[in-house]
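DATA SHEET
Item: assembly model
Revision: 1
Owner: S.N.
Input lines:
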Amino acid sequence: MAWWKRLTGKKLFWPLVALALLLAFNLFFTPHFFQIQIKQGHLYGNVIDILKNGSPIMLLAIGMTLVIATKGIDISVGSVAAISAGVVAMLIGGDLQGIPKHPIFESIVLAVLVCTVAGLWNGMLVSRIGMQPIIATLILFVAGRGIAMVTTNAMVVWLYAKPFAIIGQGYVFGLPFSLYMVVVLLLMTLFVTRRTALGLFIEAVGINPTAARFAGINAKNIILLVYAFSGFCAGIAGLIVCSNVMSADGNNAGVGYELDAILAVVLGGTSLNGGKFNLLGSIVGALIIETLTVTIYAFNVPPEIAQVVKAVVVYIISLLQSSKFRSSVANMFGRRELAA
Amino acid sequence: MRNFRKTLILIAAAMVLFSASAFAKPKTWVVGFSQEGSESEWRTADTISVQNAFLADPSFDLLYSDAQNKQENQIMAIRSFIARRVNCILFTALVETGYGPVLEEAKRAGIPVVMIDRDVAKEDRHLRLTIIGSDFMKEGEKAGIWLANYLKEKGMADKPINIVELQGTVGSAPAIERAKGFRIIMKDHPNWQITRSQSGDFTTAGGKAVMEAFLKEDKNIQVLFAHNDQMALGAEQAIKEAGLQPGKDIIVIGMDGVKGAFQAIMNGEQNCTVECNPLLGPQAVQAIRDLRDGKKIPPRIWTIEGLFDATNAAAAFPTRQY
């Protein structure tokens, strides 16, 4: 039983079990779920959609993981993603012939820059002014949508500049372009947090900021950095959302993404109490959420009850993650065996 | 002493004059307008139409509030209108239910409520004075009738027709009524069947994501019935990505008649859009003017609406405002 203990002791084990259970359900109940074809020179199927449509949440979850590791939270990411979409749409412009008003690359860089500044603003409020993270980011959660509305003039702006579509709809070597962005960002973040001392610093700040400061860590700047990074991730996520439908919708782009991102981080096994974090777990968490969404569409759950089904599944997965719950269930069965 | 009496008379005269002028010129009527959000070009056109119509009449003051697609914002806005003692409330309901208590408050304060476009649930309708807007059920029926004629033209009238439906926001009046209207026509066509139905929340991204999933599970779709054009436009992208041609391989029916849909129809990627006229401003101002003048107001004021497909979209396109 030692191997079983070692296996279940792995951080990624339970998130992967949850994902596997969801996929197993689809294997039996949604006939074409795993079917993958090649269409127009790229892979085509539900699984590819999960990777493509899940990439914004995966990106947000990467940023959110580091924020949560410092015992913070960033609820502004959905609104910041909407700002990114609004800024890029404003710069590229809705020209019907697809001629961009400003060069596409510059527009993208500027949009991400604006979102990084938004993240810096959050970080300033938390680290320098000492606001509670949930309140500090609540400001942009509300105001961000307003800013996004201003950039799009409260209209849905349609984009026709073809090259911009690559970000959210393009494929490279058969796989969605957005997935590569996630992988690159993930590898970079993993490298910086696992191969340098930064990861340790972030965990130290999350566990005890005062002790971290006495140990010589500049806790304020670490906090500033993680919020700026979260804003940066939200900026890229916003680009994908905008490019996927080639339109920027200040009201609806990225609505509820902050909660999905937080859920992804929690499902991935990172505690909201800060400290130890698990980036790969957050990615798995994001995949669980997106798989659930696609499952609901594919299984054709009536829309009136779709949200309830989602809630119940998330509830069960969360229970599965809790080691306390698991051990109490194990105890229950253990006792019964003794009685018999 | 004389001077004092003179001043007194002057003041009295001034007061009489002032009050007379106050009687002669009626105070401006303050109208509070609670819009449910600005999720589409349609909604923006509606908002601008109402704002401009009130701007054109200086005897009205319009207070505007955008609820950003949240019911709690909308209830708060209406409460603040009541607290400010506006003369009339204009109101587009985000969803049908849940407005009873706040409408009750308005009624107690003696403020008439005029609905625009989206109505409240049946049990709350006695609390509002009238509704200006479209007959969503009729729109659903129109879509069904158009489809029947189109299928007859294509010689597919008797073939089995699988329809997928992209519903609007769950619980909203247009989603409920459009679905109902379409199903009324379906009763005459036993060969039609709605095989899949999901909510795309009236958004492009929602429509695209749902259609992507539909296309993977179901290779046998003849018709897409979307409750608005935004979702239809998103779904058209998904259909193209699946290697099919929207408008040909799958018949696409949208609703509202936004500019994007006209372009899609002219490109052959959408087949028809049932107009839902958002330019409600002039009719709203007229209704409230009648209300101020004490005229009787009908409980429903319909808007005039059409239907556009490949035969008439190009001709109508230049005149479209939204």
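QC remark: The first strand of chain A starts at residue 37 and ends at 39.
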